[in-house]
Amino acid sequence: MRATKVIRPRPSRRPAAGTRLDAQLRGIQRLVMQGELAATAVHEISNLQTIVLFNAGLLKEEHKGDAAVARHVEPLLHAAGLVAALCNQLRNLARPPEAHPQWLELNAVARRTHTLLQRIIPRDLLFEPDPGVTGSVIADPGQVEQMLINLVLNARDATPAEGGRIIVRVGATRGRRPFLEVEDNGTGMTPAVKARLFQKFFTTKAPGHGTGLGLVTVHRLLEGMGGRIEVRSRAGRGTRIRLVYPPAPAADPAGGAGLYPPNP
Predict the structure, then answer these.
(1) Longest dimension (CA), the chain
(2) Which pLDDT score is estimated for 244?
(3) What stretch or stretches form a coiled coil here (predicted)?
């Protein structure tokens, strides 16, 4: 009797269509849950921020003319305003945020933001503007500040408390496009991390210390302005992130009405 050879089908290495669909659905459910959690957090943060803003406003009103009080209250009011702007950005994560562009100088915005952050960042935080560049752009000042703060806070998290150095620069490219730049001497990034830098919810920080939305927001806002991001980083050698903006007229076409911060 001749032996019968049984041929068994080889298992496919490709996942079944149903398996891929299940994975996609789980990913969507995860995003929905994260969105709901973010919405709840934003609501609670907004309530707390309103209390801070209200009481800081009362302090300012009750101590009019007191320079010592104003020196502490003004940064508090400014920071509370930035928190409100960040909450609005989170609410609008699923749709383009409403912007209020105006003529401004990156030097002025960076200097103000640098002064604010010096109070809360225990690192060497340096500001190195190019004397020949004011950085005239047409942009929403709140969005520019938010982008710079995101970059500086990321640099803070990547640098050691002792010996950590963060440099904020304003300059222009060879094509005369103004830029904001943040450079640090921190841990740097591997090519694998750099490739996922602008992926939603991706973070290398410990649980509870990062949302994975900061650079996503920066990338989105800058693209909306017609700009671009340039990233240079090596593991163990630090990181430099440059925000390049479209140029604007060297003088405010509104005659100073759109200058930020406004002329005294």
Answers:
(1) 110
(2) 93
(3) none
Q: Provide the residue ranges of all domains of the chain, joining segments of one domain with +.
A: 17-91, 102-244
Take residue 145 and report the two structure tokens written for it.
């500040």
Output the pLDDT for position 182.
93
Q: Which CATH superfamily is domain 102-244 in?
A: Histidine kinase-like ATPase, C-terminal domain (3.30.565.10)
Predicted model pTM: 0.61
Which helix (H) or strand (E) is 138 found in, with range? strand 136-139
264: CB partners within 8 A, 6+ apart: none
Question: In sequence order, what are the residues at sequence separation of 6 or more whose Cβ sits closer than 8 angstroms to the Cβ of residue 97?
Answer: 88, 89, 143, 221, 224
Predicted pLDDT at 59: 82
- Three-state DSSP at 229 gives strand
- 130: how many CB neighbours lie within 10 A of its CB? 14
Tokens for 139? 């942009």
| Type and span of the H or E element at 195 | helix 191-195
Q: Which residues of the chain have pLDDT under 50?
A: 257, 259-264
CA distances from 233 to 152, 172, 179, 239 (A): 15, 20, 18, 4
